[in-house]
Amino acid sequence: MNISQLLEFDRMAREDGQKYDKRREIYDDIARDAGAHFIGIIGPRGVGKTVILKQLALANERSFYVSLDAMEGDLFDLVKTLHETMQIGLFLLDEVHVYHRFEADLKKIYDLFDIRVIFTSSTALGMHESSYDLSRRVLLKTLYPFSLREYARFKYAQEFGALTLMDIVEKKLPQDVFRAGEHFSSYIQGGLMPFALQEPQPLMILENILKTIIRKDIPHIAKLLTDELEKIEQLIRFIGLSGVDGINYSSAARNVHITKYKAEQYITLLERAFVLHRIFPIGSNVMKEPKVVMALPYRLLYKPLNEAIGGLREDFFVGALRALGKEVFYLKSMRGQKTPDYFVRDLQDIIFEVGGKGKGRSQFKGMDVKIKIIFADGYDMTDIHRPLFLAGLLNG
Asked: At what angle do helices 3-17 and 75-86 cross, to 10 degrees?
């Protein structure tokens, strides 16, 4: 453990933190949290978790930033030494999932020292399935990619008020909200990733991120053979090249030539690594096998925009609602009948159809839920139609 080298990394982190004058909405929530628990920030690679830690380091004099993928030695010993010799009271630990004993060391640190820890991880799997009891010691917060509202603020310095689902349903919208629609195309093509603010070709970066997730992150949290990682790559490619309908454990197993059990395992890992979303069907008389969509904008690694747009719309909708913590279910077609896409639990239950122009009330035939909305491209606000981009302005 080279303390002098780690101190230099900490100094460089603070210096780097000065470059970022704008803060994500989650920053104030973390900075104000005065609870006794540690805070874990989980989220996709490239979403800005490290930037938040560097901003916190800059704002807290008696803090210490360390990236665990660059640290050699024992984490507990490092914290003990710096706390006792330098009175460090806040430790900012980046990418803890690469450190194999992080659960045990966090537990010891919490129990023995009067300090605070804020850490990040690019995978939720190790956090949620830890064999150590961190439940009363750690509060997890998920950092998602930019909402369309955040993207407009960071990229174009445009401020849009937050909407609720019922604001959209009841058309309680400020006039300037429609200006956000002009940014929607660039947003779904990669603009939602914060690194796209500086990178003109974000999909190239995203491709490298995906390789890192498969070859580095997943092996840290699951005991898999090398050829299984290749199967995971094939699985993602199959999903990316396919349409949205009919993608589930069974279809993945058939097309990648793996067992249904393995398909479920790999898809679960990829969801915990923020690459895929599983949406389970609602109702008791359907097989409990989820529909699988991708996190934005991974689908564009496999198809051009004009071929991927249908899937991207659903990827966007599911991601936006999941970021709000909403329960999203899909409506399973029975005996070839067409049903709307999604059922969302809110203050009132809502059924959504997500798609292009030209869909109408016939999509909801036989549905007895009171609120029915068609989210589609464009700016149509007539009848039950609403612009799809409005889902990117939701907050609550």
From this structure: 80
Q: What is the domain extent for residue 389?
A: 148-393
Does the pLDDT of residue 394 top 70, yes or no? Answer: yes
What are 67-112's pLDDT values in tens digits? 998 788 899 999 999 999 999 999 999 988 788 888 889 889 999 9
Which tokens in the block code for residue 169?
């349903």
What's the number of domains the chain is made of?
A: 2
Mode of pairing for the β-strands spanning 342-345 and 327-330:
antiparallel
Share of the chain above pLDDT 90, in %: 68
Read off the tokens for 113. Answer: 């020292």
Q: Do residues 110 and 220 share a domain? A: no
Residues 123 and 183 occupy one common structural domain: no
- Are the C-beta atoms of 28 and 39 separated by less than 8 Å? no
Q: Rounded CA gap, 373 and 396, in Å? A: 18
Q: Running DSSP on this structure, what letter comes out for residue 18?
A: T
Residues in the chain: 396
170 and 49: one domain?
no
pLDDT tens, residue by residue, 301-355? 999 999 999 999 999 999 999 999 998 998 865 544 455 689 898 767 888 999 8
CA 61 – CA 55 distance, rounded (Å): 11
Q: Residue 319, exposed/middle/buried by CB under 10 A (0-12, 13-18, 19+)?
A: buried
Q: Given the structure tokens 């540690």, which residue do they identify? A: 38
Q: Name the 3-class secondary structure at 223.
A: coil
Cβ neighbours of residue 218 under 8 Å, at least 6 residues apart?
A: 123, 224, 229, 232, 269, 270, 273
Does 153 share its domain with 297?
Answer: yes
Taking the C-alpha atoms of residue 321 and residue 293, their distance in angstroms, rounded to an integer, is 13
Are 133 and 192 contained in the same domain?
no
pTM of the shown model = 0.90
- In the predicted model, is pLDDT for residue 125 greater than 80? no
Residue 9 structure tokens? 């990394």
121 and 45 in contact (C-beta within 8 Å)? no
